[in-house]
Amino acid sequence: MTVRGLLAFNAKFYPKWDPKRAAADLERFGLDPKARIGALSRGQKLKLGLAVALAAGPEFLILDDPTSGLDVPTRQDFLRDVIRELAASGTTILFASHLVHELERIVERLLVLKGGRLVLDEDFDKVKATHQASLEDIFCRLVAGA
């Protein structure tokens, strides 16, 4: 299957599918619509997955380490532009990541899990003011007891 074929296939399942958004994200991520999915690198497949998810026009998006395997410029673009764009459009995003330092610029509400239990659910600005530390340091204090 080609990149274009995957987009066409997925478009049938989502009433809010945005073909312009899909095309723009393919260009943004440097993906050739004619490329065969099997020939894509791991990073390119991740970018394609993001393009499909974003074109679906989600109201709620769960992202589990979405920047893992992406090159630095794409990761920065995704965090700086794509996530902020989605949040501004009203999309609620649950962003799970082990790279907590990357989230400091985009997080509004911080939820921290330890051993499968929620140990923090609070507005990030309030957490920063209380702990007066980086997100990474706050996370380590809460999870590792450092």
Could you explain how this protein is built, in words?
The chain has 146 residues and is an alpha+beta fold. It has 2 domains: 3-106, Rossmann fold; 107-146, no CATH class. It has helices at residues 3-11, 19-28, 42-55, 72-88, 124-131, 135-143; strands spanning 60-64, 92-96, 109-114, 117-123. The strands form 2 sheets. Strands 1-2 form a two-stranded parallel sheet. The relative contact order is 0.10.
Fold blueprint:
Elements: H1 3-11, H2 19-28, H3 42-55, E1 60-64, H4 72-88, E2 92-96, E3 109-114, E4 117-123, H5 124-131, H6 135-143
Parallel strand pairs: 1-2
Antiparallel strand pairs: 3-4
Helix pairs in contact: 2-3
Please outline what is shown here.
By secondary structure, the chain is α+β, with helices and mostly antiparallel strands.
What's the number of structural domains? 2
Give the full name of the CATH homologous superfamily of the largest domain: P-loop containing nucleotide triphosphate hydrolases
Structure classification? alpha+beta
Strand numbers in spatial order across the main sheet: 1-2
Average per-residue pLDDT, rounded, comes to 87
Q: In CATH, what is the class of the largest domain?
A: Alpha Beta
Biggest β-sheet description = 2 strands, parallel
Beta-sheet strand percentage?
A: 15-25%
User: What is the tally of beta strands?
Assistant: 4
Describe the global form. elongated
Estimated helix fraction: 40-55%
